[in-house]
Write a structure and sequence with these properties.
With 298 residues, the chain is of the alpha+beta class. The protein has 11 helices and 11 strands. Strands 2-3-10-5-8-11 form a 6-stranded antiparallel β-sheet. It has a 5-stranded mixed β-sheet with strand order 1-4-9-6-7. InterPro entries: Homeodomain-like_sf, HTH_AraC.
Length: 298
């Protein structure tokens, strides 16, 4: 049987599912997408509590209601006035959505954006963070609304004006980078030393946990002793270094088990477990069910 990689929440997937490409609520192509309202979005795309890997970068602007979501292990509650910029290949897990929730969202492949010499424009602007969540001032919120309205308006005019959309999107990203940088400059003590270490640690875990499960590895990367790293992480999050590593592995395992045709032993190999039995016991201990049971859940 041919092995398939995990299904990504990607524009190509949406296109293959024959979701309407261009109507009053959304525009979707192979490298750019715009959802003007999620109220009538296809419900079959998302399941609460199910982790998904997104292929392209995302900009999400909440219009009403609220959503509780894990983005690369960290939980956020996003409400009106907030905007989220999420790097490609992030794992997201929606855990709660209010009945009145609605947002606008832009997705773009990095090749779509008009910049040369950068592998990933989103990550470049995020200074290699996986995501930023910004609370906008009323004036900033109005400006962002203007960007979304202008981009959506240009999308309504056939033919597709690719260059105009590309540069409007780049302008929006630079504007959001300015807001983020301005916030840091106005609040230079925004992050404590503990918080800075924690953010860097989580970024390392998201990158390396499939292969590296030793506390020493992360301590070395951060130029800290393992004991000090454990102390800082526990103080910052009330969880240990291994707690976070294990949570990251479980997220990866869930994505592979649910969104690929890999068998359990193949998932075990992919995640560098010594054998399938060890992986199954680890998964059962962390989730309360076996990998096979999890695959069967809806």
């Amino acid at each position: 049987m041919e092995q398939k990689g995990p299904i990504e929440l990607a524009l190509k997937l949406l296109d293959n599912l024959k979701i309407v490409r261009h109507n009053e609520h959304r525009y979707i192509s192979s490298d750019f997408g715009f959802v003007n309202s999620f109220v009538k979005m296809e419900t079959t795309l998302f399941s609460l509590g199910q982790p998904y890997r997104i292929k392209e970068g995302r900009i999400a602007f909440v219009k009403q209601g609220s959503v509780r979501v894990l983005i690369n292990l960290i939980e956020y509650t996003i409400q009106p006035g907030y905007i989220a910029v999420i790097a490609p290949n992030s794992i997201i897990q929606i855990t709660e959505v209010s009945p009145d929730f609605d947002m606008q969202m832009i997705a773009a492949d990095h090749n779509f954006l008009p910049i040369s010499g950068k592998d990933d424009f989103f990550s470049y602007l995020l200074h290699h963070q996986k995501s930023i969540i910004l609370l906008l001032s009323p004036q900033e919120q109005q400006q962002v609304e203007h960007y979304f309205t202008l981009i959506w308006g240009v999308l309504q005019e056939p033919p597709f004006r690719k260059e105009a959309i590309q540069h409007l999107l780049a302008s929006l990203l630079y504007y959001l980078e300015y807001i983020a940088q301005n916030s840091i400059e106005q609040n230079p003590a925004q992050l404590t030393r503990q918080e800075e270490i924690f953010q860097r640690f989580i970024s390392l875990v998201n990158t390396h946990s499939k292969k590296e499960r030793n506390v020493n590895f992360y301590a070395d990367k951060l130029c800290l002793t393992p004991r000090y790293l454990n102390t800082v992480i526990r103080q910052a999050s009330q969880q240990t270094v291994m707690d976070w590593i294990n949570q990251s592995i479980i997220l990866e395992a869930k994505v592979l088990l649910k969104h690929s045709n890999l068998l359990v032993y193949q998932v075990s190999d992919e995640l560098n477990f010594p054998n399938p039995s060890f992986f199954s016991k680890f998964f059962k201990r962390m989730t309360g069910m076996t990998p096979h049971e999890y695959q069967q859940t809806k």
